[in-house]
Structure prediction request, 341 residues.
Amino acid sequence: EYQSMMAELLDFDVCNVPTYDGAQAAGTSLRMASRITGRKKALLAGNMNPDRLRVIQTYLDPVMSVEIIGWDRDSGLLDLEDLGSRLAPDVAAVYFENPSYLGAIEDQGEKTARMAHEAGALMVVFVDPSSLGVIQPPSRYGADIACGDIQPLGIHMNYGGGVGGFICTKSDREYVEEYPSRLFGIAPTSGKEWGFGDVAWERTSFANRETAKEFVGTHAALWGIAAAVYLASMGPKGMIDLGKVIMQRSLYARKVIGEIPGVSTSTPSAVCFKEFVVDLTKTGRKVREINGKLLSRGIFGGKDLSEDFPELGQSALFCITEKITMRDIDRLVEVLGDILR
Prediction:
């Protein structure tokens, strides 16, 4: 049931049993692309999650090289001119996140897919599943593989847990054969009834052990059950309502925070989902200092971007989910304004 609902949400034919987490799912997706195309290079968006980038680089290092694609500071979107200059016969996949780590919704998916496919590469897209009630799934704009993390699907905060990666593709054999994780499908039983069973068990790391193409575990599978309960409870309308609430509150937060003197929101022309960048450079304060004062008032400030994105100056990444109320946002603005006065 989990696999069926995830495949419906992503508008793909196949979805796997959860892998360790979203970063591992992204790494596996890119290694799948390498095996499918026979190529050894991945082009990754420069506006992606830096922690996820490090995991992917580690995971790909034995078999693939990585190049970073530039992105536009104003729109927050991929620099397609830079992408075009990097596409070559050795590129297996183009990878980007939608929404990006900095919150921008990537609306150039069709162009990116066309460029990748014309160069003989696949397109891999990492998505937030809670956005898919309001944003088209990657399959609709040409993605060959979609991946992500199921944490937003009703899974509570946890110290190092509460995560599980998903990978979705079409049902073509060349894709199915490259999943190292378990897949379940409908199969006839001895009594001519229908049951559920492993699909192509022999391709999994569990069956191949030391000769497997790569390895996955099953410890995240129970989070898949939790995500399935959440999806069944929400239903299609609930997922649409969820996406609308998040976008409306994010838009409101971005507007009112940007009205604080000395504060502005970066990527001004971007349409955002959950995350957005707040530029605090003109306040003359460091993000670390501001966050310390916010914490003393019971508020977690935005993530300091000065190390991973130094080109953004003293900027912070704020995130608004369905758990954040309008009252929470108003209090943040009041306290932040007080700190900066």
Notes: The chain has two domains: 2-228, 237-340. The CA atoms of residues 250 and 320 lie 5 Å apart. The chain has a mean pLDDT of 94. The chain is about 35% helix and 20% strand.
